[in-house]
Design a protein that fits this description.
The structure is a single chain. The chain has a four-stranded mixed β-sheet. The chain is built from 15 helices and four strands. The protein is globular. The chain starts with 9 loop residues before the first helix and ends with a helix. It is mainly alpha-helical and 376 residues long.
Length: 376
């Protein structure tokens, strides 16, 4: 793969070369995402003669846009993230953003999770307990797993996004009574448990949506659970395990000027870098770093990234996407596209199981940590 400097999947590309594979799906995804970015920038420029957003707000994109997988037919999941005092102008900002985005992309899903204002207070202060709704959990997890700010420039460094994400991470690391930055147990259990809760909530909500929507678009949602949703959990699990596999040694730079003497700060900064990295890239880097056996690394990489490559190619096929969106459950067994989703999804899951749970020896660090923290 060429032009790695401008390519969002550089580590995936290195794995492709290592496996002697041509995974063109990632090039397609990168190109389509760049096209989508340009279209969104053009739409936003029409309403940004005066500053569209103030210092307390930031437009954040989620989903395929944030993962750099914005393929043909993808919608634009976005929200106006607000971290500041009450301001009546935020309603106007959200309305203008919505109008601009709808001029070029499909509207977000009808659950109300996206396409609205979201506020930092609930995201930071309502973790767990009765006040932590499904929407609050979803937004908080997605800010960590697949989000990026998109103001007038997609590369702009958002103080709002960074401050909110940093404060969420402080909650997870500094209030985890089991987390021991200087001890032997450095896996952030508080964060990992919430990540696992989110993954299981996705699966439960899939069944609920099937009933509520009378089976409409069930196949596409099922396919996303098999691939992109499962990818998020895998990348998040990889980060949590990396805190013990290779804990940060020192604070290279205090990004916020907060708690410079706090021993958890290096982990919070490491988690922030994770949040800034596309999940495919992070998982690829994790495999490169912690699977030293070349045969095993090649086998796992082919399963995980080879199957995901096929998923990206299929999802960019408008005929395939339309077929999955309209597919009735009774016809799934004969649908060629859903058969491919099922088959490639099984390969993807097999690669993840081998990465996280297959112990070739009692000293396998990844499998041992996975069994300790994900199992019993």
């Amino acid at each position: 793969m060429n032009n790695l400097a401008a390519f969002p999947f550089r580590t995936v590309s290195k794995l492709a070369d290592f496996c002697n594979c041509d995974w063109k799906g990632y090039r397609i995804a990168a190109k389509e995402t760049e096209t989508a970015e340009n279209e969104l920038l053009k739409a936003l420029s029409n309403i940004s003669k005066n500053r569209l957003l103030d210092a307390d707000s930031s437009m954040v994109v989620f989903g395929s846009f944030a993962r750099y997988e914005m393929l043909k037919g993808s919608d634009c999941d976005w929200a106006l993230l607000i971290d500041g005092v009450v301001n009546n102008q935020h309603t106007r900002q959200a309305r203008e953003l919505s109008s601009a985005i709808k001029s070029v992309f499909k509207e977000p899903g009808g659950t109300g999770t996206f396409g609205n204002m979201i506020f930092s207070h609930e995201l930071i202060h309502c973790i767990g307990g009765m006040a932590d709704s499904n929407i609050n959990l979803t937004i908080r997890m997605l800010l960590l797993l697949e989000s990026r700010c998109f103001d007038v420039s997609p590369a702009k460094d958002s103080v709002v996004w960074r401050n909110v994400v940093s404060n969420i991470l402080e909650r997870y690391f500094e209030e985890d009574v089991h987390f021991s930055p200087k001890g032997k147990r450095r896996v952030p259990r508080f964060l990992l448990n919430d990540l696992t809760r989110y993954w299981r909530t996705i699966c439960v909500d899939y069944a609920a949506k099937y009933r509520q929507q009378d089976g409409k678009k069930w196949a596409l949602r099922n396919a996303k659970i098999r691939f992109s949703r499962k990818l998020l959990y895998a990348a998040g699990l990889a980060f949590c395990l990396s805190c013990e596999l290779a804990p940060p040694r020192e604070v290279h730079k205090d990004l916020f000027g907060l708690h410079p003497d706090n021993s958890a700060r290096p982990f919070i900064e490491s988690a922030l870098q994770f949040a800034l990295t596309p999940p495919l890239e992070y998982l690829a880097a994790f495999i490169e770093a912690y699977v030293p056996d070349t045969a095993k690394r090649r086998r796992i990489a082919k399963k995980i990234f080879g199957s995901y490559n096929e998923w990206l190619i299929l999802l960019n096929n408008q005929t395939a996407r339309d077929s999955l969106e309209k597919l009735h459950h009774s016809d799934a067994g004969e649908n060629l596209y859903f058969k491919k989703v099922r088959d490639k999804g099984s390969v993807f899951a097999s690669g993840l199981r081998e990465l996280f749970f297959n112990r070739e020896s009692d000293k396998d660090p990844i499998a041992n940590l996975s069994l300790d923290y994900v199992g019993f």
